[in-house]
Amino acid sequence: MHHSGRTFAVDLNGHSCSCHAWDLNGIPCLHACAAISWFHGNPEDFCDAVYKKEAYLRAYQPMIMPMTSQDQWMKVNLPPLLPPKYHKQPGRPKKTRKQAVEEPKLPSNPYKLPRYGIPLKCANCGGEGHNRSSCKDY
User: Fold this and answer.
1) How far is it, in rounded angstroms, from Cα 32 to Cα 3?
2) In the chain, what are the domain boundaries?
3) Each residue's pLDDT tens digit, 48-90
4) Residues with Cβ < 8 Å from 124, sequence gap 6 or more?
């Protein structure tokens, strides 16, 4: 089969395709469906047996009875369940908490202005694009 400039080999008897999607999940990929429809077949006949209605009914054949309400449960003479005990993790505690990805980043010093967007200006000659240490007029 040709799809998006690539060629895929489909084996209908072996239930496999060279894109390996059919091999992985047991459901025919679009290349396999095209090959099946070319031979006037039904793609549902080529699906793995676990996806069919009979397998679903076989899995749920023994009736699962709903649970009764909590006040009708059997009383057991065991102590009540407690949460696990707190265990302090080794290592130094973090100074700041971890921020979420969508949370805006706060500057480390709120009183300092950012440098981006402002052109460099030389304190020696007043020209733009360089500073005093790289000035040619000094």
Assistant:
1) 11
2) 2-59
3) 888 888 998 998 888 878 888 888 888 889 998 899 999 888 9
4) 132, 135, 137, 138
